[in-house]
Design a protein that fits this description.
This protein has 129 residues and is an alpha+beta fold. The protein is built from 2 helices and 8 strands.
Protein backbone atom coordinates (compact mmCIF):
# COMPACT_ATOMS: atom_id res chain seq x y z
CA UNK A 1 0.00 0.00 0.00
CA UNK A 2 1.60 3.26 -1.06
CA UNK A 3 -0.40 5.59 1.21
CA UNK A 4 0.26 8.65 -0.96
CA UNK A 5 -2.29 11.45 -1.08
CA UNK A 6 -3.09 11.37 -4.78
CA UNK A 7 -6.33 13.28 -5.31
CA UNK A 8 -8.78 15.68 -3.69
CA UNK A 9 -12.48 16.28 -4.17
CA UNK A 10 -14.49 19.44 -3.68
CA UNK A 11 -18.26 19.06 -3.28
CA UNK A 12 -20.44 21.59 -5.07
CA UNK A 13 -24.11 22.47 -5.04
CA UNK A 14 -23.60 24.08 -8.47
CA UNK A 15 -20.63 22.51 -10.26
CA UNK A 16 -20.55 25.12 -13.04
CA UNK A 17 -20.33 27.92 -10.48
CA UNK A 18 -17.61 26.02 -8.56
CA UNK A 19 -15.61 25.43 -11.76
CA UNK A 20 -15.72 29.13 -12.60
CA UNK A 21 -14.72 30.08 -9.04
CA UNK A 22 -11.64 27.82 -8.90
CA UNK A 23 -10.57 28.57 -12.48
CA UNK A 24 -10.86 32.34 -11.98
CA UNK A 25 -9.46 32.45 -8.46
CA UNK A 26 -6.59 29.94 -8.62
CA UNK A 27 -6.06 29.28 -12.33
CA UNK A 28 -7.09 25.62 -12.06
CA UNK A 29 -8.02 23.88 -15.31
CA UNK A 30 -11.39 22.11 -15.26
CA UNK A 31 -12.30 19.19 -17.50
CA UNK A 32 -16.02 18.34 -17.18
CA UNK A 33 -16.89 14.63 -17.50
CA UNK A 34 -20.68 14.70 -18.01
CA UNK A 35 -20.89 10.90 -18.25
CA UNK A 36 -19.79 10.74 -14.59
CA UNK A 37 -21.45 14.02 -13.47
CA UNK A 38 -17.94 14.98 -12.34
CA UNK A 39 -15.23 17.49 -13.22
CA UNK A 40 -11.53 16.61 -13.20
CA UNK A 41 -9.32 19.46 -11.96
CA UNK A 42 -5.66 20.19 -12.76
CA UNK A 43 -3.86 22.45 -10.31
CA UNK A 44 -0.57 22.60 -12.24
CA UNK A 45 1.17 21.45 -15.43
CA UNK A 46 0.45 17.93 -16.71
CA UNK A 47 2.56 15.40 -18.57
CA UNK A 48 1.40 13.40 -21.60
CA UNK A 49 -0.44 10.96 -19.27
CA UNK A 50 -2.38 13.78 -17.57
CA UNK A 51 -0.34 13.32 -14.38
CA UNK A 52 1.34 16.15 -12.41
CA UNK A 53 4.52 17.19 -14.21
CA UNK A 54 6.14 18.76 -11.15
CA UNK A 55 6.37 17.70 -7.51
CA UNK A 56 4.33 19.61 -4.97
CA UNK A 57 0.82 19.48 -6.37
CA UNK A 58 -1.96 16.98 -6.86
CA UNK A 59 -4.96 17.01 -9.13
CA UNK A 60 -8.52 16.59 -8.03
CA UNK A 61 -12.14 16.79 -8.93
CA UNK A 62 -15.49 18.36 -8.23
CA UNK A 63 -18.73 16.50 -7.84
CA UNK A 64 -22.28 17.11 -6.71
CA UNK A 65 -22.53 17.45 -2.94
CA UNK A 66 -24.06 14.33 -1.42
CA UNK A 67 -23.29 10.90 -0.02
CA UNK A 68 -19.71 10.73 1.18
CA UNK A 69 -18.92 14.01 -0.61
CA UNK A 70 -20.39 16.48 1.89
CA UNK A 71 -17.09 18.23 2.69
CA UNK A 72 -13.73 18.43 0.87
CA UNK A 73 -12.07 15.02 0.79
CA UNK A 74 -8.49 13.95 0.22
CA UNK A 75 -7.87 10.58 -1.40
CA UNK A 76 -5.19 8.03 -0.55
CA UNK A 77 -3.76 5.66 -3.16
CA UNK A 78 -3.65 2.01 -2.12
CA UNK A 79 -2.59 -1.17 -3.90
CA UNK A 80 -5.88 -2.96 -3.13
CA UNK A 81 -8.99 -1.31 -1.69
CA UNK A 82 -10.38 -4.59 -0.34
CA UNK A 83 -7.25 -5.06 1.80
CA UNK A 84 -7.25 -1.39 2.92
CA UNK A 85 -10.91 -1.69 3.99
CA UNK A 86 -10.03 -4.59 6.30
CA UNK A 87 -7.18 -2.60 7.87
CA UNK A 88 -9.39 0.49 8.26
CA UNK A 89 -12.03 -1.48 10.18
CA UNK A 90 -9.38 -3.33 12.23
CA UNK A 91 -7.96 0.02 13.40
CA UNK A 92 -11.27 1.68 14.30
CA UNK A 93 -12.37 3.24 11.02
CA UNK A 94 -15.70 2.67 9.26
CA UNK A 95 -16.35 1.99 5.58
CA UNK A 96 -18.74 4.60 4.16
CA UNK A 97 -18.78 3.42 0.53
CA UNK A 98 -17.28 0.08 -0.49
CA UNK A 99 -14.99 -0.35 -3.50
CA UNK A 100 -16.63 0.79 -6.75
CA UNK A 101 -15.27 0.88 -10.30
CA UNK A 102 -14.70 4.21 -12.03
CA UNK A 103 -16.64 3.65 -15.24
CA UNK A 104 -15.73 0.15 -16.42
CA UNK A 105 -12.87 -0.10 -13.90
CA UNK A 106 -10.07 0.45 -16.43
CA UNK A 107 -9.29 3.83 -14.82
CA UNK A 108 -9.45 2.34 -11.34
CA UNK A 109 -11.64 1.99 -8.28
CA UNK A 110 -12.74 4.26 -5.46
CA UNK A 111 -14.06 3.89 -1.95
CA UNK A 112 -14.64 6.09 1.10
CA UNK A 113 -14.16 5.59 4.82
CA UNK A 114 -14.43 7.49 8.09
CA UNK A 115 -11.24 7.64 10.09
CA UNK A 116 -11.03 7.34 13.88
CA UNK A 117 -12.04 11.02 14.18
CA UNK A 118 -15.09 10.86 11.90
CA UNK A 119 -13.43 12.46 8.84
CA UNK A 120 -14.42 11.09 5.45
CA UNK A 121 -11.37 10.09 3.39
CA UNK A 122 -11.22 8.62 -0.13
CA UNK A 123 -9.39 5.56 -1.40
CA UNK A 124 -8.10 5.03 -4.95
CA UNK A 125 -6.82 1.83 -6.57
CA UNK A 126 -5.32 2.07 -10.06
CA UNK A 127 -7.03 0.19 -12.86
CA UNK A 128 -5.38 -1.66 -15.70
CA UNK A 129 -5.49 0.84 -18.57
Amino acid sequence: MSGEVCHFEVPADNTERARKFYESTFGWKANPMPEFDYTMVSTGPLDENQMPKEPGFINGGMGKRGGPLEHPVFTIMVDEIDHAEKLIEKHGGKIVQKKQPIGDGAMGFTGYFKDSEGNVVGLFQRGKM
